[in-house]
């Protein structure tokens, strides 16, 4: 039985995690960390990691500052950390990588297994089509999402660019430029509205055909499921920096 500590337990993703884990027999939530102490059902909630009386795999769905704090606590206590928060700065990401030298850290801006399969497919499509096809990414999220473009859109773009040896330049806005599309452009567009959970499209646009890779999240449950899989995976690992690619390549021999 894997013990899990959820940072951000009172938020939408935290509560979704609690509901998902309640129906499982391989893990349980032993505590939560959030802005104020109290409880979620029978789960005790503490206002800081320093108050925790227990140990477990940390799953973080909070904020950039919270993600760094979780990793620092994980190092201090020898606890694996699954970091799911978005909007992290390069400095924040560097802090997570430093922490991974002393404790297992699993990092993904999108915990959906499906979206990470899409990323692997985008890599393969870039390998085959990239030289002759223009590439555009369109992401759509709910009206309350703070960061744009989404961390997932940047994950996709970075995977594509790595496959293309870094040749692409990201373009977020063409409204001020009156010129034809450049060969090195990789366009990233963001849509914000209503209650869209998360949709991502990758378009490979050729002279006479378009190949579209698309993923749509129907509920936040897909992110919770991925975070749980990551926690179970990470508990068995040595200190290091892990991503969904590591998890997927254990599941998908063809990737």
Tertiary shape? elongated
Give the name of the CATH architecture of the largest domain: 3-Layer(aba) Sandwich
**How widely separated are the two ends?**
30 Å
User: Domains counted in the coordinates: how many?
Assistant: 2
CATH class of the largest domain: Alpha Beta
> What is the CATH superfamily classification of the largest domain?
NAD(P)-binding Rossmann-like Domain
User: Which spans of ≥5 residues are poorly predicted at pLDDT below 50?
Assistant: 251-255
Overall mean pLDDT stands at: 91
Largest sheet: 8 strands, mixed
Helical region count?
A: 7
CATH fold category name of the largest domain = Rossmann fold
Coarse structural class: alpha/beta
Biggest sheet: strands side by side, in what order? 3-4-2-1-5-6-7-13
Tally of DSSP β-strands: 13
Order of helices and strands: EHEEEEHEHEHEHEEEEHEH
Task: Kindly provide the radius of gyration, computed on alpha-carbon positions and rounded to a whole number of angstroms.
Answer: 19 Å
Determine the oligomeric state from the structure: single chain
Percent helix range: 25-40%
* Percent of residues in β-strands: 25-35%
